[in-house]
Amino acid sequence: MTGKTPDPRQPGQTPKRPAAADHHPGDHRATGAVPTSAVPTDNIPADPVPADAGPDDRIGRARHRPEPAAQLKARDIATTGHSWDGIQEYDNPLPRWWLWTFYACILYAILYSIAYPAWPMIDRATRGVLGYSTRDEVRADIAAVEAANAGIKERLVDTDLEQVRGDPELLRFAGSAGASVFRTWCAQCHGAGAAGGPGYPNHLDDDWLWGGDLGAIYASTAHGIRNTTDPDARWSEMPAFGDILDRDQIGALVQHVRAISGQDHDAALAATGAGIYADNCVACHGDAGTGNRDLGAPDLTDAIWLYGGDEAALTETITQSRFGVMPAFNTRLSEADLRAVTVYVHGLGGGE
Ligand code: HEC
Ligand code: HEC
């Protein structure tokens, strides 16, 4: 230092920064004061903005200029002791309004956790002195909806299924209630859109294994198919022809089935197959192969396949046979829900 006051207006005479190593945050926490030795005050210009600086320059500089330590000291405001490149942090108290809001929040949280279910315990949360429960609320909502629907459900149960179609109000109710029953109980197997999949029939087409009028759909749904729990379940069993016929005969049958369903086939083999079909298959699938609803035997002449119409699928079906099982729903659904889902499935497009 020469003792000469540096000319603040001279460019390049910016305040010298203290070496970063001298100023680790927290260094001066104990005293709270900023040691003057660490902050060079002697060469801080009184006004480091040159007189000829433009307005932008002035604003920009003023904003980022740290308050000189000497002034800080004079105002006697403690800093946190942190200093980064000469920038220090005031240790001002929190605003009152903020503090009281904070305390109010804590108080609210305590009162809330006493009044309402809050703290998780081993099997459930604390109940809260008000006894409020979201589950009770849901139960009450469900009970209210059920009470509101009780009348129309009763009417659905008392009305002949065929007559439901002539009653617009009942039909609308059954359609929407049936749709939600279907999504809950049937979609897993028949698909959310009821289009089915291999082994699970499509309810959108007008091809039915057991029948597509309201009575048949109701019976399939109420008692199920090939289950052992309901004595009235629909039942039939296609034999596994792998035990009865040899491979060549089954190969010929496959070509015959492809022929009657209008697919590419070997004509000579198909002719052989026709004879084997007549001996083994007509009892269930009919002379022409159009099926038999009393036995749930599919129509083999349409292009709709439950298990598949390609050679591999046909060979497997004939060799091993299939055994589609559907559970009974009369033990799971109320009579009103059974009827509603019947009306819904019937209304999907293929109802007869
Ligand atoms: C566990 C799977 C499964 C569930 C769940 C299921 N089904 Fe089925 N359903 C089947 C199978 C498999 C068949 C075909 C049985 C066969 O091969 O004859 C079938 C057949 C049917 C049929 C006869 C179709 C026809 O062409 O004659 C109707 C109607 C039916 N289901 C309705 C329903 C309804 C309504 C529900 C819901 C309440 C339901 N299913 C739930 C598996 C299921
Ligand atoms: C006792 C009755 C019965 C006899 C006999 C029978 N079937 Fe079947 N067949 C059925 C039934 C029932 C099904 C449906 C099985 C199911 O849904 O799980 C079926 C299904 C099929 C299918 C599947 C159709 C599809 O849509 O995927 C083919 C193919 C078939 N049978 C061919 C034959 C041939 C060929 C013969 C003679 C060698 C024959 N069946 C004999 C009852 C019979």
UniProtKB/TrEMBL annotation:
Cofactor: heme c
Localization: Cell inner membrane
Cytochrome c domain segment(s): 173-261, 268-349
Pathway named in the protein's UniProt entry: Energy metabolism; oxidative phosphorylation
Transmembrane segment boundaries: 97-119
Pfam families registered for this protein in UniProt: Cytochrome_CBB3, FixP_N
Compositionally biased tracts (Basic and acidic residues): 19-30
Keyword Cell inner membrane: yes
Family statement: Belongs to the CcoP / FixP family.
Name of the protein in question: Cytochrome c oxidase subunit III
Organism annotation: Paracoccus nototheniae
Lineage: Bacteria, Pseudomonadati, Pseudomonadota, Alphaproteobacteria, Rhodobacterales
